[in-house]
Amino acid sequence: MTVQQTIEQKLSEQLAPEYLSVENESHMHSRGEDSHFKLTMVSEQFAGLRPVQRHQKVYGILADELAAGVHALAIHPFTAEEWQQRHGEVPASPTCQGGSKHDLA
Beta-carbon neighbour count of residue 26 at 10 Å? Predict the structure, then answer.
């Protein structure tokens, strides 16, 4: 199972999202490994939570993946009402500025 599939499976099982998109953005970064992901999800389990609490919930679910090589995880968590207000628009990712501590020599 790929890292992306593992992320999708864990979030689906634990947050029962109405919408889930996990994008592997590793190709936009200097190392190219499966290490950079963007996730957009809609779950009623985010209702009543502040943004930082929503992120903490996701980080807790994906703790093993973050410890094992996922370097960057952009999280865009919404309730169904918030998602409707956005008209289902997924936030754009910034362009990578390049560089890595591994590129220093």
Answer: 19
DSSP the chain: --HHHHHHHHHHHHH--SEEEEEE-GGGSSS-SS-EEEEEEE-GGGTT--HHHHHHHHHHHTHHHHHTT--EEEEEEE-HHHHHHTTTPPPPPPPP----GGG--
The span from the CA of 64 to the CA of 97, in Å, is 27
Q: What is the pLDDT of residues 48-83, one digit of tens each?
A: 999 999 999 999 999 999 998 888 899 999 999 999
Domains of the chain, by residue range, sit at 3-86
- pLDDT at site 96: 60
Q: How far is CA 102 from CA 14, 30, 31, 39, 98, in A?
A: 34, 9, 9, 25, 11
Class (C level, CATH) for 3-86? alpha beta
